[in-house]
Design brief:
Elements (H helix, E strand, L loop, with lengths): L1 E5 L7 H14 L4 E7 L18 E5 L2 E4 L3 H12 L7 E8 L11 H11 L4 E6 L3 H4 L6 H17 L10 E6 L9 E4 L11 E6 L5 E6 L12 H6 L2 E7 L6 H11 L1
Parallel strand pairs: 1-2, 1-5, 2-4, 5-6, 6-7, 8-11
Antiparallel strand pairs: 3-4, 7-11, 9-10
Helix pairs in contact: 1-5, 2-3
Length: about 260
């Protein structure tokens, strides 16, 4: 088995080493795990690709490459250059430091990498570790992902729904902000929506008086609707959300047709 892994926190991020462990446990001794990750942090890059500029790539070691680009760029580099002799069987992206539950999913470079894998016709999973007060006191804040990730990824790989349509399904896994021992289990969940949490900007000024804007996130520990991903995460469950890149609002199509008539 050949697995390509990437992330959006960068090639040196601690969550990437957790993902390497997960991937190696699935690939087994006879398998291959290839790391192609951004040279620098790409959090919030979403599904961005470097369409208007080239990407510098560097081989850092056996089956380990850094790319000056986004997670989606890394997937493209992996498929069409680094692993051009044979496509990967599976793409894993993460483990993100922070949740990609609810509306965070729409900005996530972690899920952007998984989405690109799905668009390329390859099974893909994005993994994220929700952080909070109960993980901040742990020696390993990725404990939940490290302990429960291998079995869950194997279960999805062997028994998950992997279709071959034009917008293939891919998966988003969010591990809860608790210790490994306090994880209650895993549940399928739709995306939630935090009604009081939005990205905003905050102005700062340089010593020369130039104005700069920082993007700020909102509260992350407000529960979403019952049964949705963030609500389950905050209750100690791993959420598994099936996704597609199709942005069509299918529930509106019929009504829109009537309006246009």
């Amino acid at each position: 088995m050949r697995i390509l892994i990437t992330n959006d926190d960068g090639i040196n991020a601690p969550g990437l080493s957790v993902l390497e462990e997960i991937a190696k446990s699935l690939a087994g001794p006879a398998g291959e795990v290839w790391t192609v990750a951004p040279a620098f942090e790409q959090s919030g890059a979403g599904h961005c690709i470097s369409y208007s500029r080239p990407m510098l790539t560097a081989e850092l070691g056996p089956r380990r490459f850094a790319v000056e680009g986004s997670p989606a760029d890394c997937v493209l580099a992996g498929i069409y250059d680094i692993l051009s002799d044979a496509r990967p069987d599976l793409i894993l992206s993460g483990v993100n430091r922070g949740n990609n539950s609810a509306e965070n999913a729409l900005y996530s470079g972690t899920l952007g990498g998984a989405m690109e894998g799905a668009l390329q016709g390859i099974p893909a999973i994005g993994l994220s570790q929700f952080m909070g007060p109960r993980t901040s006191v742990l020696d390993d804040p990725f404990e939940a992902a490290r302990q429960h990730g291998p079995a869950l990824v194997r279960k999805l790989w062997e028994n998950g729904i992997w279709d071959d349509g034009p917008y293939r399904v891919f998966y988003s896994i969010n591990f809860p902000p608790v210790s490994g021992a306090d994880v209650k289990g895993s549940k399928a969940a739709p995306l939630g929506y935090r009604t009081d949490s939005f990205f905003t900007t905050e102005a700062t000024f340089s010593p020369s008086g130039k104005k700069f804007l920082w993007v700020k996130g909102g509260p992350q520990h407000t529960a979403t609707a019952p049964g949705t991903d963030a609500a389950l995460n905050l209750d100690g469950y791993i959420s598994v959300t099936p996704m597609r890149a199709d942005l069509t609002a299918h529930d509106v199509l019929g009504k829109l047709e009537t309006v246009l008539e």
